[in-house]
Write a structure and sequence with these properties.
This protein folds into 2 domains: 112 residues, Urease, subunit C, domain 1; 290 residues, TIM Barrel (Alpha-Beta Barrel), CATH 3.20.20.140. 36% of the residues lie in helices and 21% in strands. The strands form 2 sheets. Strands 6, 7, 8, 9, 10, 11, 12, 13 and 14 form a 9-stranded parallel β-sheet that branches. Strands 1, 2, 3, 4, 5, 15, 16 and 17 form an 8-stranded mixed β-sheet that branches. Helix 7 runs parallel beside helix 8, helix 8 runs parallel beside helix 9 and helix 13 packs across helix 14. The radius of gyration is 21 Å and the shape is globular. The longest helix has 18 residues. With 412 residues, it is α/β, with parallel strands linked by helices. The structure holds N-(iminomethyl)-L-glutamic acid and fe (iii) ion (FE). The site of N-(iminomethyl)-L-glutamic acid (NIG) has 12 residues, from helix 4. It comes from Flaviaesturariibacter flavus. It is found in: Cytoplasm. Pathway: Amino-acid degradation; L-histidine degradation into L-glutamate; N-formimidoyl-L-glutamate from L-histidine: step 3/3. Catalyzes the hydrolytic cleavage of the carbon-nitrogen bond in imidazolone-5-propanoate to yield N-formimidoyl-L-glutamate. It is the third step in the universal histidine degradation pathway.
């Protein structure tokens, strides 16, 4: 069972590396012009220049003539909150009228609003909503995704979210990582007993989630008025004891110490990074922790973009992700994320594409199976219509240049 792609104008993102890309390597996106690619089952079996293709298309089960379009690895979205209930456009309008994200959160809106909705929603309905969102993202070229809990904030709600993430993985056949984010906010009942909620996370939620094998990672929203660096370290340490590696929400609204806390607990990634000082940048550059930037969240909250140029120039390993969620990024469109990283943060197109593919895969510890074009990797591919150069992709922001998406070798 095999599939042949011919007349690929540009086959971009050819890479066998294993380590995250940083510095000059982040700006290199190796490509082959006028290429073919062969898929066997769900994997890339071979590729090369058209002139060296020995077989005839008739020898294959199926054949796609790419007509000069560009083929690149599907997006790896390493930070989403894809499972949520309903939407929050009323808060969006409040923000237009001048109310801030922090003010909305303080009056019980924001994350707590989504938590109330989620706890009123059945698992089947949550799955239905999540599946609709995932279908849209697949068509926009997302091939691998991470999904967090964090809108339950109750034992049952958190378990339900993670079970829905598992069902999404099973139904889609996609590589899906799941992350336990019970420490997303303090629920209203624990407003005056924060310690009690942390005990609930550590003593009840974590053991049940670990026993059911529902999560790969543990996450904490380390932020002023949410979880302190000390609380973050305690929760991550407890997560590690259950086999969950940390990845964090850090330095979004303030210079919170989250980056250093994350590095200290060996976090795979620290995400957001809108609010960075020199100490946090230096610490990140000297660590093995990925810095994951979420430009659409900064854009939607009308915050200054993450200092991506300073981070990249300091030698940090950077990934880009959508943060898809109902409060700060109601879009999971990675094409837009890549454009916005170039427009708002001055990443070069090659840097942004690497950050949204190979480094995203590294942030999920899945660089052996996705994130680049290499023999043996999953055949998760985006085929664009013919474009004059790779830079045209982020340049033509808002246009859908995708002609076809193949996930696990199957055209959608
Ligand atoms: O990553 N910052 C924390 N969590 C989400 C937003 C959650 C929400 O507003 O619902 C984020 O931006
Ligand atoms: Fe997030």
């Amino acid at each position: 069972m095999n599939l042949l792609l011919t007349n690929i104008g540009r086959l971009a993102g050819i890479r066998d590396a294993r380590a995250p890309l940083r510095g000059a390597a982040l700006a290199e996106l190796p490509a082959l012009e006028d290429a073919y690619l062969i898929i066997e089952d769900d994997r890339i079996a071979a590729f090369g220049p058209m002139s060296s293709l020995a077989q005839q298309p008739g020898a294959f089960r199926a054949h796609i003539d790419c007509c000069g379009g560009t083929v690149l690895p599907a997006w790896v979205d390493s930070h989403t909150h894809l499972v949520f209930a309903g939407s929050r456009e009323a808060e969006f309008v409040d923000k237009i009228r001048g109310v801030s994200y922090a003010e909305i959160a303080a009056r019980g809106g924001g994350i707590l609003n989504s938590a109330r909705l989620l706890n009123e929603t059945s698992e089947d309905e949550l799955f239905r909503q999540g599946w609709t969102r995932l279908q849209e993202l697949r068509r926009l070229g997302t091939g691998t995704i991470e999904i967090k809990s964090g809108y339950g904030l109750t034992v049952e709600g958190e378990l339900r979210m993670l079970r829905v993430a598992r069902r999404l993985r099973e139904k889609s056949g996609m590589p899906v990582r799941s992350t336990f984010l019970g420490a997303h906010s303090f629920p209203a009942e624990y407003r005056d007993d924060r310690e009690g909620y942390i005990r609930l996370i550590i003593e009840e939620m974590l053991p049940r989630i670990a026993a059911e094998g529902l999560a790969d990672y543990i996450d904490v929203f380390c932020e002023e008025n949410f979880f302190t660096p000390e609380q973050t370290i305690r929760i991550c340490t407890a997560g590690r004891a259950h086999g969950l590696k940390p990845r964090l929400h850090a330095n979004q609204l303030a210079v919170s110490g989250g980056v250093q806390a994350g590095i200290g607990v060996g976090a795979v990634s620290v995400d957001h990074l809108e609010s960075m000082d020199d100490a946090a940048i230096t610490a990140l550059a000297g660590s093995d922790t990925m810095g994951t930037l979420l430009p659409t969240a900064a854009f939607f909250l009308r915050m200054p973009f993450q200092p991506a140029r300073a981070l990249a120039d300091a030698g940090c390993a950077l990934a880009l992700a959508s943060d898809f969620n109902p409060g700060s990024s109601p879009s999971g469109n990675m094409n837009l994320v890549v454009s916005m990283a170039c427009i708002g943060m001055k990443l070069l197109p090659e840097e942004a594409i690497n950050a949204a593919t190979f480094n995203g895969a590294c942030a999920l510890e899945w660089q052996e199976q996705c994130g680049s074009i290499a023999v043996g990797k999953r055949a998760d591919l985006i085929l664009t219509r013919p474009i004059p150069s790779l830079a045209y992709l982020p340049y033509a922001f808002g246009s859908n240049l995708i002609e076809k998406v193949l996930l696990g070798g199957e055209p959608l």
